[in-house]
Amino acid sequence: MGIQEQYRSEAAALLSSGEVKLVIGFGEGSTADRRRPLFARTPEEAQKFVLDAACIANLSTYLVTEGLLSDGKKVAVFLKPDGIRSVNILISEAQLKPDQVVILGYAIDKAEITALEGRNISDFSLGEEIRSHTPPPHILQEAERIEEMNPAERFEFWKAHFSKCIKCYACRQVCPMCYCRRCIVDVNQPQWVSTSSHTLGNFEWNIVRAFHLAGRCAACGACDRACPVNIPLRLVNYRMGKEVIDAFDYCAGENSSQKPVLASFKQDDPETFIL
Amino acid sequence: MAKIGVFVCHCGENIASMVDTGTLVKAMSDHPGVAICNEYKYFCSDPGQETVKRAIREHNLTGVVVAACSPRMHETTFRKACAEAGLNPYMLELANIREQCSWVHSEKNQATSKAIEITRSLVEKVKRNNELKPISVPVTRRALVIGGGIAGIQAALDIAGAGREVVLVEREPSIGGHMSQLSETFPTLDCSQCILTPRMVEAIQHPKITVMTYSEVEEVEGYIGNFTAKIRKKARYVDMSKCTGCGDCIQKCPVKKIPSEFECGLGKRTAIYTPFAQAVPNVPVIDKSRCTYFKNGKCKICEKSCQIDAIDFEQQESVETFEFGAIVVATGFQIQDTSVYGEYGYGKYKDVITGLHFERLASASGPTAGKIQRPSDGKEPETVVFIQCAGSRDPSKGVKYCSKICCMYTAKHAMLYTHKHHGSNSKIFYMDIRAAGKGYDEFTRRAIEEDGADYLRGRVSKVFEENGKLIVRGVDTLLGKPVEVAADMVVLATAMTPQPDAKQFAKRIGIGYDEYGFYNEAHLKLRPVETAKAGIYLCGACQSPKDIPDSVAQASAAAAKVLGLFSREQLEREPVVAAVGETTCAGCWGCVYACPYNAIEKKDITDRNGNLIKQVASVNPGLCQGCGTCVTFCRSNSIDLAGFTEKQIFAEVMAL
Amino acid sequence: MSEPFEPKIVAFVCTYCTYAGADLAGTSRLKYAPNVRIVRLPCTGRISPMFILKALQKGADTVLVSGCHPGDCHFTAGNYHARRRWTVFRALLAFTGIPEERIRFSWVSAAEGAKFAEMINEITEQTRKLGPFTQYQELQKVIETQSTY
């Protein structure tokens, strides 16, 4: 039995036993190489789940849908390691209760899908793996290329990208970490972020979002994929993740009991840049 | 519609000579929302304040900006003026065009345009100020004094003498501190015990003072007027309510050869012991680590010897919680570990001792009953070398600071030695004689002129043994010659250092400390007994090296501060506190972790039937000190800080 | 371009240390460049990255953030939190092309009036060399041109 069939029947069993009220997974997409989320509430619906190398979305983002878990019932969700990492961060930020999430874990290696052991978040120890995890080579190369530019060139690079931003907020919508009930960009008293679609406001928005994700990003790349104008958002988030590891030895989502990196400190944190 | 009054102060010539106030007034008069703009020579004067008040009434002002000196100077003055004119005192901002403009610039045009920008940005800020009310908090009128040395005793007696309750906590079995170890005290040569013991007794008998010895402050929470402290009472294994202090148990205890801490190891004590004869309370403790019963399960001789069954091997340590309004920290000092000076032979030669050892040798109640005898063979030394600054003022090996008391006590030691042993010979190596204080210089002169103390200005490089003598090799810099003295005993004037756990303790109670671990005062000159944490005060050597007169003076000063605080039932606090917008709070608890005061709690939001809808952060305004760290953390912008709101600062920055 | 370039420096400072230090520079009559505008906050912990962005928008050529030395924070830990925040924010700005020299950080105590004065002079000089931060300010000009069609 392939992993797809195994997880279909497992999802069906979870639903029919009443252990979970919902299973979030993947269904057929509009084209052969695309998958869309499928929300199964009955064992029958669970038979429509698809699990293959095209299932790359981070479904943990649906777990923080307002009200979904407020009845105390459980939800099962198909997650890759980056999704599990997101769940760790969400638990540490009190957005999820560990007992309410049943994880149907899988990993994709090229076209190969393997099932991950464990169902509860506590079954997964990601520490080693995500610390050694490096982003795809093209991201790494691009990040290095940007680091090598002079500031003016970097500024122009990002200005060119950010000027395309149409503030559709797809990046925010798809990100599991963007669970705020009100985003700072929607605050208008005062209007910290200019909302009209000009480059200054775009700059501010993208900088603020990157800052808000510093030390919280699971590096799933969902924002990057969601961006309709192809802003390489992963690059900034990757750079922020690198900074918190280098400066504070903090790797977001290593476990579910971390304190937020920007709400904690060490007395001997580095401060080479301070006069 | 905002009606802002702008008042430009000349401060005599201080501002007007560098800022063209006419131009500033003109610019502000034209600024939107400014109803009136005046200039005057001194707005802080009575007529100046009257002008402000009149303008508030006549123009129905909604906000006031006084362009003058630093808010740290006159914010209170003008807040009061606003309140007297019926305007909420928090509808005021001071534009600092003196300290941060006219005084620091030398080109009038530039200073004027800077003054305009500063004032304009604060006009924009004040338009968005909110009316605030000071927060009033009740004051628990009981003080905690931590440390039962002379400083702590003095502070406790002064506070209790004014009728307020005090809990005096001491971690050793007896109060008294280092002063109880001293023989005579400079510059009067009073016997230390004779002047201290009555104070100790007064403290323990005082109806308003609860003395808790063998106890430690474990945790302090809360804020000025409202602290909660957990105090751990270590197990004494002796029932304090029964013990009469007869001392039979001590006599009978078979473990007799424990080096006494009080005697600096020069004397011995038993496993059940009081640190010294005059101990207060005069109730022994059992040293669990040395007691035969605790080690082997057999003995209990003390229990058998006690006629009133005061020994209780089953006693457990306990933690008691008290409420306090103020805390006086008087945790004292230790002397520096002299082992860093290997060349002086401390630890290697028995007759190289510290000043504190010498105090015990000279003390009538000490191990030698006041005779100066060498620890090695009990002989009376003929020649004693005193080495000053053996640690102090030595950045390479010791500490950078001057320990302040050593010049005086070394002179005293030389004197006592001569008094006790006529014809003796004391040589003192020194860097400088620092004898500033009432009667101090006279005292050191007396040591030199009347008691023949031989002062050699210079450092000692080495102490070594040769033919039963300690050869002290040094230099006399006044003669420019190396010197060697064959001594029978060497006394090191070691540095006074903070308690080894001073830093951890400071963190536990939330006060600051310097690079050494001495506690930081709020202002070295103007607020020397307060800490930066309101309601916590300092006295004695925990703040810096001090002698007895200074410690006592500071203790009384701290007590006066405490009593000033206790003169009120309610405290008014600046209403600069944070508040959470509950509708948008996502409950991520970042602010809860970030708050340095644990002032943010989790709050349940429930529906009408009591079902939990969500949890949000909630700021306790009594605990919040108004730093705003939470505001900056909050990603959804759901927290704001009164007095420095997002709107206010946005407007201020956008007007720059 | 008739007028010579005068740098605009906006400083966000805490009231207990750096603001008091700046006051001390004043009472000591130390002279320094008139290019700095000080915004007073209770603590460095209150200084939000948004303040910096807004200052840059309003034409600041360099932004300074300054507070109490580690261990000296009036609020015990506000500056430690701020330090972490600035480490991250500074890296972010650098990565997006805002030169590190444009955003400066310092610890200035209430006793360091001289340090404050010297620092402002140094930053002003450095900014003079860097020139105006037109790159950022021009982001707004784009608005004006866009709004014409």
**Largest sheet of chain C, if any?**
4 strands, parallel
Oligomeric form of this entry?
heterotrimer
Count interface residues per chain for the largest interface. Answer: A-C, 50 and 40 residues
Rounded to an integer, what's the Rg of chain B over CA atoms? 32 Å
CATH architecture of the largest domain in chain B: 3-Layer(bba) Sandwich
Q: What's the mean pLDDT score of chain B? A: 94
Secondary-structure element series of chain C:
EHEHEHEHH
* Coarse structural class of chain B: alpha/beta
**How would you write the strand order of the largest sheet of chain B?**
10-7-6-18-29
Count of domains of chain B: 5
CATH topology grouping of the largest domain in chain B: FAD/NAD(P)-binding domain
The major beta sheet of chain B can be summarized as: 5 strands, parallel
Separate helix tally of chain C: 5
Radius of gyration of chain C: 16 Å
* Tally of DSSP β-strands of chain B: 34
Number of helices of chain B: 18
Task: Give a quick precis of the structure.
Chain A is α/β, with parallel strands linked by helices and 275 residues long. Chain A has helices at 3-16, 43-46, 81-92, 127-132, 137-148, 151-162, 170-174, 199-213, 222-226, 233-248, and strands spanning 20-28, 35-40, 74-79, 101-109, 112-115.
Layout of secondary structure:
The complex is a heterotrimer of chains A (275), B (656) and C (149).
Chain A: H1 3-16, E1 20-28, E2 35-40, H2 43-46, E3 74-79, H3 81-92, E4 101-109, E5 112-115, H4 127-132, H5 137-148, H6 151-162, H7 170-174, H8 199-213, H9 222-226, H10 233-248
Parallel strand pairs in A: 1-3, 3-4
Antiparallel strand pairs in A: 1-2, 4-5
Chain B: E1 4-9, H1 21-29, E2 34-40, H2 46-59, E3 63-68, H3 71-84, E4 92-96, H4 98-102, H5 108-127, E5 135-138, E6 142-146, H6 150-161, E7 165-169, E8 184-185, E9 190-191, H7 192-205, E10 209-212, E11 215-223, E12 226-233, H8 248-252, E13 258-259, E14 268-269, E15 272-273, E16 285-286, H9 292-296, H10 301-305, E17 318-324, E18 326-329, E19 333-335, E20 352-354, H11 355-362, E21 383-390, H12 406-420, E22 425-430, H13 440-449, E23 454-457, E24 460-466, E25 469-476, E26 481-487, E27 489-494, E28 496-498, H14 502-509, E29 536-538, H15 548-566, E30 570-573, E31 578-580, H16 590-594, E32 600-606, E33 612-619, H17 629-633, E34 639-641, H18 646-654
Parallel strand pairs in B: 1-2, 1-3, 3-4, 6-7, 6-18, 7-10, 18-29, 20-27, 21-22, 21-27, 22-23
Antiparallel strand pairs in B: 5-30, 8-9, 11-12, 12-17, 13-14, 15-16, 19-28, 24-25, 25-26, 31-34, 32-33
Helix pairs in contact in B: 1-5, 2-3, 5-18, 6-7, 6-15, 11-12, 12-13
Chain C: E1 9-14, H1 18-27, E2 36-41, H2 49-57, E3 62-67, H3 78-95, E4 103-107, H4 113-130, H5 134-147
Parallel strand pairs in C: 1-2, 1-3, 3-4
